[in-house]
Amino acid sequence: MIVNDSRSSSIRDLRDWLLLVALALAQFLVVLDVTIVNVALPSIGAELSFASDAISWVVNAYTLAFGGLLLLGGRLADVIGRRAMFLTGLGLLTAASLGGGLADTAESLVAARVVQGLGAALMSPAALALVLTTFPEGRGRATALGVWTSLGALGGTAGVALGGVLIEQLGWRWVFFVNVPIAVLIVPFVLGLVRESRAPAARGFDAAGAVTATAGATLLVAAAAGTADEAWIAIMFAIAGLVLLGVFVAIELRSRAPLVPLGMLAARPTWVGILSLALNGAAFVGMFFLLAQSLQAERGMSALEAGLAVVPMGLAAIGGAVLAGALVPRIGTRLTAALGATVGAAALGALALAGPASPYSVGVLPAIVAYGLAIPLVGVPSQIAAVHAAPRERVGTASGAANAANQLGAALGVAAAASVSSSFGFAAGFALTAAFAAAVLLLVLAAAPTLGVRSRPQSPRASRVRATARSAAAARPIPEPAVPEEGTPR
C-alpha cells in the first residue's frame, strides 16, 4: 500500500512538472513575441511598404493589446475558467501568428499583432493562475515560479538572436510562423493534465473599464507617434485619449468589480513604483526598437549580426538581476532604483553620442552592457514598491497593474522613439530614451523617503510579495531575479 501511494505521488509529481514546463513554454512565447520582431522591422518595412513613422505599430499593436487587456484577462480566467482562457488565448495567439506570417499588407500585419496581443493577455494570467493552483505554498511553488520566471526572461533575450537566425535563413515571416509548432506542442499537455478551475468568489468583470483604458492608451500612443507635420491630429488624439482615460476612472469608481481599485493607488509607494515601471518600459523597449534598426541601417549589420550583437545586453541583465537582489536588502528600494536610473540614463546618453562611425566594441557594446545591468536595478525595486502597500487580497491586482503599466509604457516609448528618430535621426531617439531613464531618477528622488523599502528577514509578508513580484516580472521582456524579502518602509 505504501509502495502504491509512493508510486501515485511520483506520477502526480511528474504530471505537475510536465504541466509546468508546458505553461512556462507558453510564457516564453508571450515574451518572445515582444522582442523577436525588432530585428525583422527593416525587412518587414521594405516588403510591406510601411512608412518610417508607422513601422513602430508592428511592436505597439502587440504591447498595447497585451498591456491594455492583461487585467481583464486575469479576471476572465477567474470567472470563466483558467483552462478555458488559457486554451482560448493560445488559440488566438497561434492563429494570429499564422496570419502575421501570411500578411501581404501593412494593415493585415498590424491587425494580426493586435490579435496576438489579445491572445497573450488571455493566456498569460491564466497560465500563472494554473501554476499557482498546481503547486502549493512552500519550496515547490518557489521552484515552479523560478522556472516560470526564468523561461519568460529567456524569451526576451532569445527573441533577438532567434529572430536574426530565422530572418537570415528563412525570411522575416518565420518570426511569426515559429510560434505555431511551439503552440501545437503545448496543447496536448494542457488538455491531458489540466482540470478546469475558477476563483471561488469571482463574479463579474469590468469589460467597459478594459475597453476604455485600452482605447485611451491607444490614442495616446497614436498621439506620441505623430509627426510635426500632423501636430493637430496628434493633439486631437491626445485629448480623446485623456477623455477616455477619465471615463475609465469614472467607471472604476462605480464598478462593483473594478479592474483596478483606485483606492489601492493612493499609497505613494504603489503609484511611484507603477509609474517607474512604465518609464522603465518606455526607455527599455524604445531603446531596443531603435538599436535593432540602427545596427542594420547605420552600421550595415545583417539581421543575424544585429540579433547576436544585442545578446550581451540580455546577459548583463541577468547579472543586474542578481545585483538588484543583493542591493535591495542592504540599501533599500529607493537607492537601488536611483542607482539603476543613473546608470541607465548615462548608458543611453552614451548611445546617443556614439556616431555610426565608431566601432561596435567602443560605441555600442559598453553602453548596452551597462544598460543591461541597469534595467533590473530599476525594475526589481519598483516592483517591490508597487506591491508593498497593497493589502493581502490586492497584491495580485497591484502586481498586475504594475505589469500592465510596464507594457503600456513600452508602447508609448516605442511610438515616441519612432517619431523622434524618423524626424531627427537615431541619435535623437536614443536621447529621448535617456530622458525616460532620467525621469525615473527624478521621480524616485522626489518620492523620498516614502518609496524606501528595506528587506527584513523572516517578514511575514515576504514570501507572498516575493512570489507576486516574480510572477509579474515573468510577463515582461526584462529579466528579473527572485525578489528579495521586504519589510516596512524606511
TrEMBL record:
Transmembrane segments: 17-42, 54-72, 84-102, 114-133, 145-167, 173-193, 205-225, 231-251, 271-294, 306-328, 335-354, 360-380, 401-420, 426-451
GO MF entry, a single one: transmembrane transporter activity
Pfam family, one: MFS_1
Chain ranges of the Major facilitator superfamily (MFS) profile domain: 19-452
Lipid bilayer topology: Multi-pass membrane protein
Region (Disordered) residue spans: 454-490
The entry's keywords: Cell membrane, Membrane, Transmembrane, Transmembrane helix, Transport
Gene3D superfamilies, per database record: MFS general substrate transporter like domains, Multidrug resistance protein D
SUPFAM superfamilies: MFS general substrate transporter
Compositionally biased spans, kind Low complexity: 459-477
Organism superkingdom: Bacteria
GO CC terms: plasma membrane
Main location (coarse class): membrane
Leader sequence residues: none
Listed InterPro entries: MFS, MFS_dom, MFS_trans_sf, Sugar_transporter_CS
Cellular compartments annotated: Cell membrane
Protein name: Major facilitator superfamily (MFS) profile domain-containing protein
Organism the protein comes from: Agromyces bauzanensis
